[in-house]
Amino acid sequence: MAEHKRELDIAVIGAGVLGLSTTEALLRRGANVKCFDGRRPGSGQSGGLSRTFRHRHDDPHIVDLAARGLAGYREWERRSGVEMVGTEGCAYLGTTPADTTGLKTHQVPHHYAPASDRAEVFGALGPIDGPLLVDPTAGALRVNHVIETLTGWVGDHIIANDIHSLLVLDNGKVEFQTADAIYHARHVVLCAGVDTPRLAARLGWDIPLDCALHARPHYRIREELRGAPTPCWVDKSGQFGEMVYGSVIPYTDQYVLGLIGDGVDVPFDARGALTGEEGMEDHVRRVTGYVERALPGLIPEPIGVRVCIMSKLPAGSDALRAWHAPGVTAIAGHNLFKFAPELGELLADSAVQDRLPADLELAGARALGAA
Question: What transmembrane ranges does the database entry give (predicted)?
Fold first, then answer.
């Protein structure tokens, strides 16, 4: 074969946490696999210092996926000797009995704490109305530890090149192009974040992914409260004028928060042009106002901000879905970091068997419905 033409069994497009976890799972299966991304591994939507690992989701199938994701992280920790998910837990304000359905179905430990015990659950939290739902086995993801470990395991199977397009050939193989070669693969796994709809369009898939910028400012924990409980946080009560989520930044005295709900992101179109009327600084001010009202244990002066890309399917920020055709599997959604060990296994199975695993179908069953 000519030098510019190269054959592969499996190609993974995207070296974020899903691409890396899928590649690692395929290597353990003995596959001839390469992972393609023009950027440094984990520097796109998987970038940052912290993510929230939590079990609670509206869809019980997603709760199950999260539980298996945590088991996968614990196995990665055992293999690597590196901490990946902390033991801070997660506290929720503003829940209803229905919010625990999936937790009960999959026997995920949880309990309620009365408002009077708030300081024992979250040291920075001020007075609240109503109980706190506590997910004690949740915690803050150590993002850098995860990416560095996976990158080390995958090693030189990462190819630092962008992919231009995909094409399924008459012989069933998938052709894709980089800047310096044309590849043919038996199967391609497409987990390229915001680029997934563009690459999938040639395959006839219209992936309805809404993309937007999202601000996550971070704040210092007051010195007298350092060492107090700092769980991950989800407040949908509206008691303090905003709905927010947050987590500690591991190994620091900082806590990061973001807004939840409609109108909390700045959308951009297919050309990358911002289409929203508000800027990032407006959202930072809103989060800071929330800190002043709800979290007196934080100093309400932002010391930094992470501007990240949200990529949501119609059912919202916790939705995910996989698409499959002979030779190609694609996945899209948001907040997928917490599922990475399990999604990597499922996507690897899809590539090896050339069919979508039932668990992926179940997890995505509601993704295209109304939020």
Answer: none
Provide the CATH number for the domain around residue 268. 3.30.9.10
| 3-state class (DSSP) for residue 261 | coil
What is the number of domains present in the chain?
2
Q: Do residues 211 and 309 touch, judged by C-beta distance below 8 A?
A: yes
Residues forming a β-bridge with 113: 132
* Residue 104 to residues 107, 142, 181, 293, Cα–Cα distance (Å): 5, 27, 51, 33
Tell me whether residue 185 is exposed, middle or buried, using C-beta atoms within 10 angstroms of its C-beta: 0 to 12, 13 to 18, 19 or more.
buried
Q: Beta-carbon neighbour count of residue 129 at 10 Å?
A: 9
- Say if residue 162 is in the same domain as residue 275: no
User: What domain range includes position 22?
Assistant: 1-86+141-208+315-371
pLDDT digit string, tens, across residues 107-124: 999 999 999 999 999 999
Residues 229-263 have pLDDT tens digits of 999 999 999 999 999 999 999 999 999 999 998 87
